[in-house]
C-alpha cells in the first residue's frame, strides 16, 4: 500500500484487508468463530457469560447466494437494514430454508410496514407510534406477532434515528395496547467516532436508561434486551451490557455501500440546507 495515501484511503484499505469478502462456507465458519472468540473475550473482561450475548449477523447488500453460504455455516437469523431488501431475500429463500428468520434493524416508514409484518420475526428500530400502529394493523392481518426493540438516540446527533432518551418512558406506556408487538428491549447506534470513550458513553446511556425504565415498565413490556454494538464497536458494547450485537462487515466482509445510505449522516443536513422549493411550487 502506498504510504502517501490519505488517512481516509488508508483506513478504508485497512478495513478491506481486515474484512475480506466472505465467499465460502469455510470463510463464514472462520469469521463467525473469530467474532465469537472476540465476544467471549469481551465477556470475560467484565465477568459475563458468552451465552448472554446473541450475535446477529447483518447481511445487507449481500445477495441471497451469500446468505445461503452463511446459513450453511450455521446462521439462522439475519439482520437487514432496509425492509424491502429483507423482504426480497425472504421471498427468495423462505421455501428452501424455512427455518431462516429475518430481523429488520433499520428505519421503517409506515408504507413499508406490510413488508416487515410479512417477512420479519424481529424489528429493532421502533421509534414512533405511527409505525407501531401500522405494524399492529398489518400483523393482525397476517395473524402474526413480532419481537420489537425501541430505538433510542443515545448520541444526541440530530441526524440519528431513534427516540431521545427522555421520551422513551412515555412511549413505552403506549405500547401494551399493540397486542401483536412483543417489546423485548432497547436498541441504539453509537456515535461514529474513533474516540472509544465517546462511543462507550452511548452504550452507558442505553444501559442506564434501561435500568431506570425497568423498575416501572408496563406489564407485557420486557426490557431484557439491549441491542448495541456493530463490527467496529461490539466489544465496548458487550462490556457495557449488550445482549445483542449486530455485526455485518466482520462476518460478511467490507461493504462498498457507504453507511450514509443507511442512516442519513449528511442527507438530513443537506435537506435542511436546501431552500424548500416544494413549498413555493
Ligand atoms: C449495517 C448495520 C449494522 C452492522 O454494521 P457493520 O459495520 O457491518 O457491522 C448494525 N446496525 C445497523 C442498524 C446497521 O444498519
From TrEMBL:
The keyword Cell membrane does not apply. Signal peptide: none annotated. One of its GO terms (molecular function) is pyridoxal phosphate binding. Residues 31-255 form the Alanine racemase N-terminal domain. The modification N6-(pyridoxal phosphate)lysine is found at residue 60. Keywords: Pyridoxal phosphate. Its cofactor is pyridoxal 5'-phosphate. Pyridoxal 5'-phosphate (PLP)-binding protein, which is involved in PLP homeostasis. Belongs to the pyridoxal phosphate-binding protein YggS/PROSC family. This is Pyridoxal phosphate homeostasis protein. It comes from Cephaloticoccus capnophilus.
Amino acid at each position: 500500500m502506498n504510504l502517501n495515501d490519505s488517512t481516509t484511503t488508508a483506513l478504508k484499505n485497512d478495513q478491506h484487508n481486515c474484512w475480506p469478502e466472505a465467499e465460502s462456507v469455510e470463510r463464514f465458519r472462520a469469521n463467525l468463530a473469530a467474532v465469537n472468540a472476540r465476544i467471549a473475550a469481551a465477556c470475560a473482561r467484565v465477568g459475563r457469560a458468552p451465552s448472554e450475548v446473541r450475535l446477529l449477523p447483518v447481511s445487507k447488500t449481500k445477495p441471497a447466494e451469500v446468505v445461503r453460504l452463511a446459513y450453511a455455516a450455521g446462521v439462522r437469523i439475519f439482520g437487514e437494514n432496509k425492509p424491502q431488501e429483507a423482504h426480497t431475500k425472504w421471498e427468495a429463500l423462505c421455501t428452501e430454508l424455512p427455518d431462516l428468520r429475518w430481523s429488520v434493524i433499520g428505519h421503517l416508514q409506515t408504507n413499508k410496514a406490510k413488508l416487515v409484518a410479512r417477512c420479519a420475526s424481529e424489528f429493532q428500530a421502533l421509534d414512533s407510534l405511527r409505525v407501531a400502529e401500522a405494524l399492529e394493523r398489518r400483523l393482525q392481518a397476517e395473524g402474526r406477532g413480532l419481537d420489537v426493540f425501541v430505538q433510542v438516540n443515545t448520541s444526541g446527533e440530530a441526524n440519528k434515528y431513534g427516540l431521545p432518551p427522555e421520551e422513551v418512558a412515555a412511549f413505552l406506556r403506549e405500547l401494551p395496547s399493540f397486542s401483536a408487538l412483543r417489546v423485548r428491549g432497547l436498541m441504539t447506534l453509537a456515535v461514529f467516532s474513533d474516540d472509544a470513550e465517546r462511543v462507550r458513553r452511548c452504550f452507558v446511556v442505553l444501559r442506564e436508561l434501561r435500568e431506570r425504565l425497568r423498575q416501572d415498565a408496563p406489564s407485557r413490556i420486557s426490557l431484557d434486551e439491549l441491542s448495541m454494538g456493530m463490527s467496529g464497536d461490539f466489544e465496548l458494547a458487550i462490556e457495557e451490557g449488550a445482549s445483542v450485537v449486530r455485526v455485518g462487515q466482520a462476518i460478511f466482509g467490507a461493504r462498498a455501500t457507504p453507511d450514509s445510505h443507511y442512516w442519513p449522516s449528511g442527507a438530513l443536513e443537506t435537506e435542511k440546507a436546501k431552500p424548500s422549493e416544494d413549498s413555493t411550487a
